Each structure stands twice: as structure tokens, then as C-alpha cells.
Amino acid sequence: MLVDSAVLAVLDMPSGVGVSHGWTPISGPHKVTRARGNVIQSLNWRPAFDVYREAVAQATGREVNRENFFAISKSHPFGIIRLGDEMIVRDPIVVQEDGSLVCVGEVPQESHVDILVGDADSLVAAARRASDLAESAFGEPPSAPITFFVDCISRVLFLEDDFGRELAAVESSDRPLLGALTLGEIANAGRSYLEFYNKTAVVGILSGFGEAE
Q1: DSSP assignment of 146-183
Q2: Rounded Cα distance, 12 and 138, in Å
Q3: Strands 201-206 and 46-47, sheet pairing
Q4: In contact, 203 and 21? CB cutoff 8 Å
Q5: Do the beta carbons of residue 121 and residue 37 sit within 8 Å?
Q6: Residue 97's Cα: distance from chain center in Å?
Q7: Are 138 and 16 contacting, i.e. CB atoms less than 8 angstroms apart?
Q8: pLDDT digits 0-9 by tens, 136-183
Q9: Which residues of 4-14 are buried (b: 16+ CB within 10 A; e: fewer)?
Q10: Coil, strand, or helix at residue 30?
Q11: Three-class DSSP category at 75
């Protein structure tokens, strides 16, 4: 077993990739004044959990405590703000004793984050947008394309019975659909470097399958 390693398979085939998440801000921006890897220690020079629970309570009227934190945080992730591009979602999953928040993925110190909200309709619409972006980037299929859908497992936990709607949003009558539910998604939509996402729908359209037939 190797730590902090990856296995890469490089395939020479036409493809198109779309990335979208469907979450929108309800509070922020908040400055990440202290962080270590995937742990946000302070926001706006205060314990991260204090800022988070006050912001969620003010925006939604929902009281956040350590006992219900995971149940509420799955509906209110962070979004790392990027100039000129869609924000990167980070999933807070644990409150530590000192008020730090553990996220799925790194949050850079000195970055700015919003607290987000979403619902079934916005997440399904985002999956459809990711599919549309992939189709636009792919263009005319040269041969036997498939749809490869990588979806965050936390979106499934959030959508519950509406997950079928998300699958339907990326299905196509002329392409087989396959994919995976993951803890974080890695993608490059062709405009920047590889990025690690949370709570995000990634759709790839790949060509060249079935040529041997």
C-alpha cells in the first residue's frame, strides 16, 4: 500500500468533460485565517465552528451544534472562491474540540470561502449542466461514445430518493452510461489544471469503445 499515491491510465481517445455542482452562497465571503491541510482552524480570526454555526443560523434559522453538525453540514458545505471560475466545494464533516472543522480536501490558508446551500432541483440541474458541458466540449462523436459519470457519494446521501433524477439528467438514448460514486472527484475540463472537488458532478463523454467489433 502506498500513501499519497495514484495510479494513472492514459488513453488516447476523443473526450469531453463537464463539471458542475449546483450549490449557491448564503453567507460570506469568510477569510480562512488559519488552516492546516484539510482542517479549517479559524475563519475571520475566530474559531471556524463558531463562525459557521452563527452564519447558518442567521441565514436559515437552523441551530447547529456538535451533535447535529453532520446532518446539517451535508446541506451547507463551503465553497472556495476562485476569480473568474466556479468555486470549489469542500465538505465539512467533523467538529474538533478546539472548534476546527475537518473537511474532505484541503482548504488553503488565506483563501476566502462562502457557506453554501442547495436542494434536489439545483443539484439535478447541475448534473444536467455538466452533461451539456461535456457534450459541447466533445463535439461530433467519431465513434461509439459512452457517458462516464463520476458523482460524489455525499450528493447521493443528500438527494436520497431523488438520486434517480440525477442519473436521468445525464443519461442519453444513444450512449451507454457507467460511472462511480466517490469520495471526491478529480477532473480537468480543459481550461486549467487538475482539481480535486467535493459534492460535485463530473461527466465525461469518451469515444472509441466498441471499435474492434
Answers
A1: EEEEEEEHHHHHHHGGGHHHHHHHH-BTTB-EEEEEES
A2: 14
A3: unpaired
A4: no
A5: no
A6: 26
A7: yes
A8: 888 776 566 889 999 999 999 899 999 999 999 999 878 899 999 998
A9: eeeeeeeeeeb
A10: strand
A11: coil
- In Å, what is the CA distance from 84 to each residue of 17, 21, 87, 91, 135? 19, 16, 9, 22, 22
Mean pLDDT of the chain: 89
CA–CA dist 110, 145 (Å, integer): 42
Q: Which three cell numbers stand for residue 200?
A: 460535485
DSSP string, 54-65: HHHHHHH-----
pLDDT in tens, 17-35: 999 999 999 998 999 999 9
Residue 161: DSSP 8-state: G
How far CA 13 is from CA of 16, 58, 81, 191, 206, in Å, comes to 10, 49, 33, 18, 7
pTM attached to this predicted model: 0.85
Burial class (CB in 10 A: 0-12, 13-18, 19+), 145: buried
24-36 and 78-82 beta bridge pairing = unpaired
Residue with cell 453540514: 73
Band of pLDDT at residue 209, cut at 50, 70 and 90: low
The string of DSSP letters for 85-125 reads EEEEEEEEEEE-TTS-EEEES---TT-EEEEEE--HHHHHH
